[in-house]
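okkk here we go again. third time trying to get the zinc ion bound version out, last two times i messed up the smiles copy paste (missing a bracket lol). double checked this time i swear
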Amino acid sequence: METIEQQVRELFCWLCQTPHPSGEEAALRERIADRLRGLGLHPWADARGNLVCDLPGREGAPLTAVQAHIDMVCAVGSPDYVPSRDPIRPIVRDGFLCTAGESSLGADCGAGAAVMLWLAEHPAPQRPPLRLLFTVDEEVGLGGARDLDPACVDGVRYLINTDGFHWGRIVIGSAGGVREHFTRALTHSNAPELPNGRAYRLKISGLRGGHSGFDIGKTRANALILLGELLREIRMESPFALIDLSGGTAFNAIPYEATADILTIAPAQDAIEQIWDKIYARIQKNDPDARLEIQDIAIPNRVWSGDTASGLLTVLGGFADGVYARHPSGVVSDSSNLGHIYYKDGMVCLDAMLRCMDAQAEQALQLSHRTVCAMCGFAGQIVSRYPAWPAQDNGTLQTLAAQCYLDATGQEAEVTVQHVGLEPSHLLAKNAQMECICVGMELLDCHSPQERWKLDTIEPFVEMIQRLLSRLSTAPQP
Ligand SMILES: [Zn+2]
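finally!!
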């Protein structure tokens, strides 16, 4: 008799036979649909390619969806491996399922999809009616969930997303995202005649930077905000003209580098170094490798107009950046990242990204950015936005899931939120009546050829899901 672990593993290996990088899920979707039809079920796909299949359950119990994405990030570790052509070849090593290193494993989220197939192949009387929902293109901007036909979640009361990749964690909310873009025409004036004038390039670098979702709560300095502080301090000693300023790389990356060129008569280099030393003393705990390089450069013919320069310096001083609020679990709930300042088509451009779970916090941050920027001559626009999954503390689904985890393991689950976008935020936008959780088995190094799936988390995970479904089958209909 095969164990549940073996059965789920076999289903996963079966999924692995068909390549399924993001955007190329059609063949796998067809195979899954065939397999489900072979069980006498009636799967259907929406126009976007998401696959839905209903399983019968106890009459009168709330319709419950179990969901996984069937695309994967195919990280390649060998020159011979071609993601759209080659199957994934899972092997067992030291208690993990992994590959020999030629590609990522795709247990993110094939592990969840395998458990869903297991549920379809192992009917049990103590279950609510189940809807299996296989989404596509999760790894490229949550595309399948975003464009999902609302009919796919119509009537669903509870949704269990299996993309959690950490056994013991129950996610109950995630931040939405707003990309902001601000611009101001860059005007120049002739460089002032300064008999003792000197021009410097000031470059801050060596910061840790990072992802504006995963790392913003780790108290890492933002190179652009630091550069603003340095320039304001220098200005206290002596006026200067700005020749150039830029830094950062993208909306969603914390800037680790920023540069300003200035024309001034004072202070001298060692005075600027003293100012930096004070700033460094404050940030060195979290950004030990931060440094300022000061370089003499040629005196230019023209500089930024005073308006443009003071406008930008004022924005750098007043721009709400970093963590705005935290969830009781300690995870960041709302944040802002000034990610990129650059020059394009005669304009100074600022790109920032807000991540907020709380609609009011999002509004407050947006208004703050708009006001500060407008006062400094910058016009703003929203480039893109996706909704939040607001945490529903003490919801039925969350409470039952935590109890079932405790029953299955004897341990308390970690109930938390995430500061990056998850599929339930889009799914909730299609059906606001749902309660959602995101759970998963233990996966390590996802999106890399070292990706691996801890095998001894399969059986307790399936057991927890079974217990949870059983509890939901008798949960009162609201
Ligand atoms: Zn995933």
